[in-house]
Amino acid sequence: MTHSASLADGIVWIGVNDRETDLFEALWPLPGGISYNAALVVGEQVALIDAVRAPFLPELLAAIRRVLPGDRGPDYLVVNHLEPDHAGALGTLLGIFPGMRVVGNAKTLDLLTVYHGITTGTVALADGEVLDLGGRRLRALHAPMVHWPETMLTFEETSRVLFTGDLFGSYGAVAAGPFAGDVGTALEAEARRYYANVLGTYSSMVRKALARVDAADPALVVPAHGPAWRDGARPVRAWYDRWSRYEAEPGAVVAFASMYRNTARMAESVAAGLAEAGIDRIAVHDLARSHASFVLADLWRYGALALGGPTYNTGPFPAVASLVRLLRTKRLANRALGIFGSYGWSGGGMEELRQLGAAPGWRLVPPEVEVRGAPREETLAECRRLGHELARAMQAAPGPATAAP
Ligand code: FEO
After folding, report:
1. Which residues line ligand 1 (CB under 6 A)?
2. Mean pLDDT to the nearest integer, 351-372
3. Averaged over 277-303, what is the pLDDT?
4. In the Cβ-directed half-sphere of 270, how many Cα atoms lie within 13 Å?
5. Could you tell me the pLDDT band of residue 198, with boundaries at 50, 70 and 90?
6. What DSSP string runs through 111-179?
7. Quick one: which atom of ligand 1 is closest to the CA of 225?
8. 20 to 30 Å CA-CA from 35: which of 238, 309, 317, 396?
9. What CA–CA distance (Å, rounded) separates 366 from 275?
């Protein structure tokens, strides 16, 4: 399904909903789908802002035909981001509209060569440079690493509409048109999960991009995924400010794996200890069953992680090792970490967890609790104490990082 909707005079949203892809980037679950947003900016010349994943080209094409008369095609395709969720259809689209010129920046054109073999008919805009459509002016605001090196924002100056690519994006198909309706917790949760999964690694670059958004002072913000935002996008702007500073809400994540319920019982005791210490928002994830996408989203929200698992083949349990690896690459900071685990005849499952605690941005909170065999009452009491200490560590936290935009 494609629908089109007016964003401003002469600017039409022609996004496409994808309710079929199970895993975004072959990684992240999409229970509510996702939208690939595109728009037509119609001046004397016409620019298409972003495209869609290749399988959705027919729907994008139908929307273009609906907006533009006859066989008229866009004169330009402005590529804010060349990742194939937005630009996968680019090659075929150029075959249909051979006169259309691809607009980006020098890094876009480099990626255009390696992804599409296109080296001619392109326009590279310097940072701040304007593409004048006649009655519409598109200013390129480079925003590298939000989320690839070539990413940029495009600001239509006459209507003050800012197209932001992945910045301010959210999972979830756009059900009833392109605009954010009631800004409920469900939308915030899916925007946070998108941020933690896709953009979190690049939080310092996000902060630079936020400063560019503020300077532009847009009336309307249109990300490449999820709803568009009126009134300067105040809610999502505030969320991004918090998430990119690693600001934490009071609350904790208990993430564990367990083969025979020994580590699971320890996890329950850590959670009980957190609750005894007054933490009333505790997200417990069995890593054999909770997808890391949702664990990351909760970790981007709360200030502490209790992480545990059994030793497996003299190392960490695979699901635990996988989460540790993801956390290292996501560069989450300002978080307290407590660790626990169990083993039968050979330890070795805790070392990578300890190393996470020594990584920048993490504070390893004692006691470390590890048991051989099944936990007895004294071990479970020590797990509850770990919960108490994690709660205390959050209360004493130095506050979020304040990376300057
Ligand atoms: Fe929506 Fe980084 O692609």
Report:
1. 81, 83, 85-86, 147, 166, 224-225
2. 97
3. 98
4. 36
5. very high
6. HHHHHH---SSEEEPPTT-EEE-SS-EEEEEE-TTSSSTT-EEEEETTTTEEEEETTT--SB--SSSSB
7. 1
8. 238
9. 18
Residues 103-130 pLDDT 10s: 999 999 999 999 999 999 999 999 999 9
The residue type at 374: A
Q: Quick one: fold of 249-395?
A: Rossmann fold (3.40.50)
Rounded to whole angstroms, how far apart are CA atoms 36 and 44?
26
Q: What is the distance in A from the centroid of ligand 1 to the CA of 81?
A: 7
Distance 98 CA to ligand 1 centre (A): 25
CATH superfamily of 5-244: Ribonuclease Z/Hydroxyacylglutathione hydrolase-like (3.60.15.10)
Domain boundaries, the chain: 5-244, 249-395
Joined together, the tokens standing for residue 1 give: 């399904």
* pLDDT, average across residues 242-263: 97
In this structure, the residue with its CA closest to atom 1 of ligand 1 is: 166
CB 326 within 8 A of CB 223: no
147 C-alpha to center of ligand 1: Å? 7
Residue closest via CA to ligand 1's atom 3 equals 83
d(CA 86, CA 52): 4
Q: Residue 143: its pLDDT value, please? A: 98
- Give me ligand 1 centre to Cα 85, in Å: 6
What is the distance in A from the centroid of ligand 1 to the CA of 311? Answer: 36
Please report the atom of ligand 1 found closest to the CA of residue 148: 2
| pLDDT of the residue at 232 | 80
Q: What is the pLDDT of residues 259-274, one digit of tens each?
A: 999 999 999 999 999 9
Atom of ligand 1 nearest to the CA of 83: 3
Mean pLDDT of the chain: 95
- Residue 318 structure tokens: 């695979």
- Concatenate the DSSP letters of all residues of 179-208 into one string: B--S--HHHHHHHHHHIIIIIGGGHHHHHH
